Amino acid sequence: MANVIDITGLPPERVVFTPSPLAELGAALHALSEPGHHPGLHGWVTATNAALKTDLADRLCEADILWRSSRSDILLPARPGATLAEDLDELDKIDDERFVAAAFEITCSPRYTRPTPSPLVDAGERARIREMAAARGPRQAAFTDRMLTDPDGLRVWLRRLFEDCEEAFFGDIWRRVGIQLAADARHKTELLRRKGLAETLSATSRALWLEDAQDRSGSGSGSTRIVLDKLAQGRTTAFADPADPGVTFLPTSFGWPHLVFAHAQGWRPVLQYPVASPELPAPAALELVQQRLEALGHPMRMQLCRTLSRGPHSTGELAEAFGITSPEVSRHIATLKKAGLIQTRRRGRYVLHQLDLQVVARLGSDFLEGVLR
Question: What is the pTM of this model?
Answer without folding.
Answer: 0.77
